[in-house]
Specification:
5 helices; 8 strands; about 20% strand
Length: about 230
């Protein structure tokens, strides 16, 4: 009887230890932010998967291969240069959902399934102080607005095409078209779901190169086939 009780107690303790060994998403997040990537906080965009990923899954795209090493992994994607275009150096951290062990692997491309990831820490843009420069004499005459010029700009088709580089690219091209004589009303910007506030707000917003307020007015159409037609 005593032996049976001892076996039951041992089995119960084993079950409790197994339950305690399961790493939750909050545990993985704390491990990333407070231990593994503590020196990257504010210097990179850090994303954590919203669910665990099974062993043997290639998590990256564009002909690269990064395979999940554990039977169940929390996957962290670290974009070390979020204002750069792809490809550029980035990292993946795999946390074993059973033991908390982890591996860090290097890559040059974002995850294949970006909607599976949620940002848990963002890159902080450096504060840029204004420098007073002597006035420059512009010898290039300003072009007159030509009402016969039209332009269509198209970016992405979903809410995940909201990286800061897309905003900056669109803004730079928009300003170039205006310099070439295009009127604002003749430049049609189709981007994601068509609402700049939803796609480029907060920490994802880039440069307001044309200084036209309100900042959201230039993106008016979604990047969908019916809208473009």
């Amino acid at each position: 009887m005593r032996k049976r009780i001892a076996v039951i107690i041992f089995m119960t303790l084993g079950m409790l230890l197994s339950l305690n060994a399961i790493v939750t998403r909050d545990d993985a997040k704390a491990q990333i932010l407070n231990q593994i990537m503590v020196n990257s906080i504010g210097k990179a965009n850090i994303y954590l998967s919203t669910q665990t990923v099974a062993v043997g899954v290639n998590v990256v795209s564009h002909n690269e291969t990064i395979i999940t090493p554990y039977s169940s992994s929390w996957v962290t994607f670290i974009d070390d240069n979020p204002v750069f275009g792809w490809k550029h150096p980035c990292r993946y951290v795999f946390i074993d959902a059973s033991s908390g062990s982890h591996q860090v692997l290097s890559a040059t491309i974002h995850p294949e399934n970006m909607p599976l990831f949620e940002m848990i820490s963002n890159y902080l843009l450096p504060t840029i102080s204004e420098i007073e420069l002597p006035p420059i004499q512009n010898t290039t005459p300003e072009r007159n607005r030509d009402p016969h010029l039209y332009a269509i700009m198209i970016n992405g088709t979903n809410l995940y095409n909201k990286e800061i580089r897309f905003w900056n690219n669109l803004s730079a091209m928009y300003c170039a078209l205006k310099d070439l004589g295009y009127e604002d009303s003749k430049i049609y910007v189709h981007s994601a779901d068509g609402t700049a506030a939803n796609n480029y707000d907060g920490m994802e917003r880039g440069l307001d190169l044309d200084k036209r307020l309100p900042i959201n007015n230039d993106i008016r159409f979604p990047a969908t086939l019916p809208s473009i037609k």
